[in-house]
Backbone:
């Protein structure tokens, strides 16, 4: 019987029992990438080829989330028995540290940022911290003096990024996000959303304009969104997710 390949899934205290034929055992093991640490006993004759496999799960190696910024133990965590909710992830990361902005944490899910007032959630017990996490979620606790921007849509790495002391341009932000998705990104469909007194103003840009024109600095709370290639899918998503007051094709290089 071929030895199953190594992998990780589930919690170390969880055990599963199977009574399958050898070919089904192997397909199940390989599909779920289990680590078998138990025993394999023949329940019938070798001609029948029926086995019982006891599998003890070692640790999690999938369904990852990240906790970043001003926490005691920033890093990658896995959605297992001990980490399921926002509260679990924050506890696993050791909680926010000084000088974290406890009122302006950010949960990024599917490229969409959601603001989290951690201090209020702890004080009021309103249930916010009980929200279930999903694979790919990124929870960020910013510094009190930190200026952040958001990059999402068809880029290689969506998320919340800090503007360094020397500043950050739109091209620089796309670089931090590891560039456009070479298959799905629409090079003429890059949108900068910038807050003003009346809400958000959207500036439509193209990659060619960014490469050929002057550098455009980003300012705190800017949103940079790269659209899908099919325009109709983009239009439907845009209307639901990012309503704003006006759309313009010019952007002030000075950031005003």
Residues:
């Amino acid at each position: 019987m071929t030895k199953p390949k190594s992998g990780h899934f589930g919690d170390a205290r969880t055990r599963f029992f199977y009574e399958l034929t050898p070919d089904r055992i192997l397909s199940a093991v390989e599909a779920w990438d289990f680590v078998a640490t138990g025993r394999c006993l023949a329940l019938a004759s070798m001609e029948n080829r029926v086995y019982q496999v006891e599998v003890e799960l070692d640790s999690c190696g999938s369904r990852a989330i990240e906790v970043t910024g001003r926490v005691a133990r920033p890093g990658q965590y896995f959605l297992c028995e001990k980490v399921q909710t926002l509260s679990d992830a924050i506890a696993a990361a050791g909680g926010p540290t000084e000088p974290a902005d406890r009122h302006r944490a950010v949960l990024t899910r599917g490229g969409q940022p959601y603001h989290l007032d951690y201090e209020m959630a702890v004080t009021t017990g309103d249930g916010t911290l009980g929200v279930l996490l999903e694979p790919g979620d990124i929870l960020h606790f910013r510094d009190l003096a930190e200026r952040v921007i958001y990059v999402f849509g068809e880029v290689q790495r969506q998320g919340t990024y800090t503007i360094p002391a020397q500043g950050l341009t739109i091209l620089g932000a796309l670089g931090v996000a590891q560039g456009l998705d070479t298959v799905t990104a629409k090079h003429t469909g890059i949108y900068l959303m910038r807050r003003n007194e009346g809400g958000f103003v959207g500036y439509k840009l193209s990659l060619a304009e960014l490469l050929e024109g002057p550098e455009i600095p980003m300012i705190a709370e800017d949103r940079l969104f790269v659209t899908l290639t099919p325009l109709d899918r983009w239009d439907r998503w845009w209307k639901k997710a990012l309503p704003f007051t006006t759309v313009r094709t010019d952007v002030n290089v000075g950031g005003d």
The first helix runs from residue 22 to 32.
